[in-house]
Write a structure and sequence with these properties.
The complex is a heterodimer of chains A (352) and B (248). Chain A has 352 residues and is an alpha+beta fold. Chain A has ten helices and ten strands. Classes of the chains: A alpha+beta (352), B alpha+beta (248). The interface between A and B is large, with 80 and 67 residues. The structure holds FE2/S2 (inorganic) cluster.
């Protein structure tokens, strides 16, 4: 494992991404506050702080849906992968919206009394067996803690230092946070807000997210099932012509990691399909400046040795390839990460 | 993305073919976010018509300290007395004035024709917040009412009369609990046949304050058992059994 990580480059796309994100949040909040103010006026006005509590709380949940949808969408179509590029900021923003919601609750509902606001808000009841009286504030609190943990460790520094496995496990907790938040709403505010639209929206959100994950998962599973039998020493992968110049091909092998084969400058090389960063599909990437470039966040690897170009130190497994006639053959046995493998010549390229 | 074109890489200029679908996706997302905001905001329930006055006013009448401080005007209207923040009216300024005619200074909270005085902060006044004017009138007459089992929601009188809007419901539970344990009168709000609110001050079997025992039953549907009584223009219920939460 490496202790190096890539500095977050503050580039044009990230700026545009963040601007759009800020714009979306402004649109959400302004529409929410505006509608609340126009619809409930005079003596029937909703307290301003309560409108804000609701706007930030619901905004966080809406954004969390977007965060959770991007992963499966990017697996289903590369058109969505630009959204992955800066997803970290979406997650951090979700946490911040939730934090503002919780702070307003502490000040407004928990403050100005004879008790510490935190215990007032978290301790108003403790009937875990009741639906109407479930201590729903605890659910929101735990979800916020999880979002905090994820926001705090979202930087690649932590990915590198905590180790990819632990980091991934930690970030899977986002699904726990999502479930807790759904229950926070159902056992909390929906006990008194009776509009049918709320359960419908929550249900639609859950079904959409669940559906996307299932469809993306099934698609991946189908690819794995259709994978090539990797028991022999060499596996016939495809015709040389099927490979596009500077493009990759993902080779699915039965019960093994996938392999990415690339054709470039009259040569063929094969490396692992799994990006060291967050497991992005390298075979769906491209050779740019002589390096295999991950379609998710742009990590790069040299095709002939699976190593990131200096100063980076990531290494992924390499594979041997052979060309027989017009067929490409792959040795399914992975080499140690970073092992140099002499690229094979593309016979067609040498002819022309 | 067309064949031969570069894929999208965040730190490189965006390829032409990526731009259009991405614009569509981002545009769609923006619309979805706007739709969610409008739909959620439009479906909020009406918090009810209640007013928290901003002007300092003076009220005259007879002060009764127990079970919760009230001021009964010459017209027989009972005005509950509470303090700023989440605190009831008992204590400083009010103590020792039981049965006396007083002038109290504060702000009005009003809902459904019911009024409550939030005592002014002493620093806002030249005189004392509650001035003693001499001997007061006798307490209002008390009569028994029918009705033993009642369903409704326990709220704190101050928030429900306009300090918070909405001042009821589960989201407001922590606040109402804080108010009630702080001495603000707990009130059972139920619905009359015509849909209007019915208010009953909740007391113990002997007419004593029991706010400590209500924690855990505030801001949710409950059932209470007790003897209903009318004290002047105020309805109270003296509980004869513990409150129970109503689950679906
Ligand atoms: S997964 Fe992030 S760059 Fe490959």
């Amino acid at each position: 494992m490496t202790n190096q990580y890539r500095l977050v480059q503050w580039n044009h796309h990230k700026k545009v991404y963040d601007l759009l994100l800020a714009g979306a949040i402004v649109v959400y909040l302004v529409a929410f506050i505006g509608v609340s103010a126009i619809l409930h006026t005079g003596d029937n006005a909703i307290s301003v702080l309560i409108v804000l509590i609701r706007a930030f709380g619901t905004g966080a949940i809406v954004l969390l849906h977007v965060v959770l949808a991007i992963g499966p969408l990017a697996r289903l179509s590369p058109r969505f992968s630009p959204l992955l590029y800066n997803r970290r900021h979406l997650g951090v923003t979700t946490f911040l919206l939730g934090l503002i919601h919780a702070t307003l609750v502490l000040v407004f509902y928990g403050g100005s009394g004879g008790e510490n606001p935190v215990s007032a808000v978290l301790g108003a009841n403790s009937d875990f067996t009741s639906v109407t009286n479930f201590p729903y504030t605890l659910l929101g609190f735990v979800a916020l803690l999880i979002l905090f943990l994820m926001a705090a460790t979202s930087h690649d520094f932590w990915l590198a230092n905590l180790g990819a496995r632990f980091w991934k496990w930690l970030h899977m907790l986002v699904y726990v946070a999502y479930a807790l938040l759904v229950m926070h709403v159902v056992l909390g505010v929906l006990q008194s807000e009776k509009s049918l639209l709320y359960p419908i929206l929550l249900g639609a959100g859950a079904i959409t997210l669940g559906g996307l994950h299932v469809v993306a998962g099934l698609k991946e599973a189908a690819k794995t099932r259709a994978g090539l039998d990797a028991r022999g020493e060499w596996v016939d992968v495809c015709a040389v012509d099927e490979l596009e110049e500077k493009r990759g091909k993902v080779v699915c092998l039965k019960s093994q990691e996938r392999v990415a084969i690339f054709k470039y400058d009259g040569k063929l090389s094969a490396i692992s399909n799994v990006c060291k960063h967050q497991g992005g599909p390298l075979g769906e990437g491209q050779i740019i400046d002589g390096c295999v470039t991950c379609p998710w966040h742009g990590y790069q690897y040299l095709p002939e040795n699976g190593q990131s170009p200096p100063p980076y130190t990531e290494k992924i497994p390499t594979y041997e390839v052979r060309v027989e006639g017009d067929r490409v053959l792959l040795n399914p046995k992975a080499n140690e990460p970073g092992t140099p493998v002499e690229p094979v010549r593309d016979p067609k390229a040498s002819e022309s | 993305m067309t064949a031969g074109e570069r894929i999208y890489v965040g730190y490189l200029p965006m390829p032409r073919g990526t731009r259009k679908p991405l614009l569509l996706i981002v545009g769609g997302l923006m619309w979805a976010i706007l739709f969610a905001s409008l739909a959620i905001a439009l479906s909020q329930r009406d918090p009810g018509s209640a007013v928290w006055g901003t002007n300092l006013e003076s009220f005259e009448g007879t002060l009764f300290e127990s079970p919760y401080p009230v001021l009964v005007t010459d017209r027989g209207e009972t005005l509950m007395i509470v303090r700023m923040g989440k605190f009831g009216g008992r204590g400083e300024g009010v103590g020792g004035l039981d049965g006396r005619r007083v002038r109290a200074h504060g702000r009005l909270l009003t809902r459904d024709g019911r009024r409550l005085i939030e005592l002014a902060d002493a620093s806002e006044l030249d005189s004392s917040v509650v001035e003693d004017l001499g001997p007061g009138a006798a307490p209002s007459e008390r009569t028994a009412l029918s009705g033993e089992i009642l369903g409704g929601e326990i709220v704190d009188y101050k928030c429900f009369l306009g300090a918070m809007k909405p001042g009821d419901g589960k989201a407001h539970q922590a606040c109402a609990t804080l108010c009630i344990t702080g001495g603000i009168p707990p009130v059972l709000v139920s619905k009359n046949d015509d849909g209007s609110n019915h208010y009953q001050l909740i007391l113990g079997a002997n007419g004593e304050p029991i706010h400590e025992q209500l924690t855990g039953f505030i801001g949710i549907p409950v059932e209470v058992r007790g003897n209903a009584e009318r004290w002047g223009d105020l309805e109270v219920i003296r509980l004869t059994a513990p409150v129970v939460a109503v689950n679906p």
